[in-house]
Fold Class I SAM-dependent methyltransferase.
Amino acid sequence: MSQTTSAQSAAPARFSDVKGWFWPADQLLFDWFLARQERQGLRGDLLELGAYLGKSAIFLGSYLREDETFTVCDLFDSPAPDDPNSEEMDRSYATLTRRAFEANYLAFHDELPVVVQAPTSVITSRVDSGSCRFIHVDASHLYEHVHGDIAAARDLVAPDGIVAFDDFRAEHCPGVAAAVWGAVATTGLRPIAITATKFYGTWSDPEPARSELLSWLPTRPDMWHGVEEVAGAPLIRISGKKAVAPAAPRSRHEGLTPVPTPAPTAPKPRPALARRLAKGLLPRR
């Protein structure tokens, strides 16, 4: 995620109205991986660590099936657990509130996901081990926290489940890069594909998904791809600068005139000090 200080002030009439950094290439890959799980009959829950205003959560929620659970974990406007994380929250997510997330999500879905308003370090106590078929990690950019998020994802992901890590190559997030590639080197995390912003991998056998993805990508003239060997295995590189996003979730407010949040009323200017003193001292007529 990039830095921001502006707030979304109206109910979203379209998916594109929801602020966030979830680009068409990654929407296409989320759709591809999740639709593949549907075809396979792979059951399991969905998990997102770090939600901002809900753009990727809204998208993920469209793939939730009966008897599955979607959990979102974020601090929202709670205090950060340590000073470095607090400083990062202040710089990047000054407008992040749970109320804004929930309003956005309910514009597209009838029910909220399970919301855990807490540091992501608590997630293994709230979600069952090995239960999640798809995990999206987009929380803290600090190495120590990302390292913990990766350990949690490894514990919570189901067999053949997919994990997606955001900002693994952003210049302002070196801690994410160090933690993700460190996990490739030391924990058995297997890369499948990368885009400009996200890393897609698994702790299971990556070859079936990789082969099917390589069969699908040539059908997408709007996306370039190439393959190179990384850490002893093929890695699919994808450029989606011209990618056309898949069908987006529909807002219940579509076609309605957005109602902006009222601006705060400016305080009435106070009279100058000399005027106030004179008024108090002079006799009344």
Observations:
- The chain has one domain: 15-257.
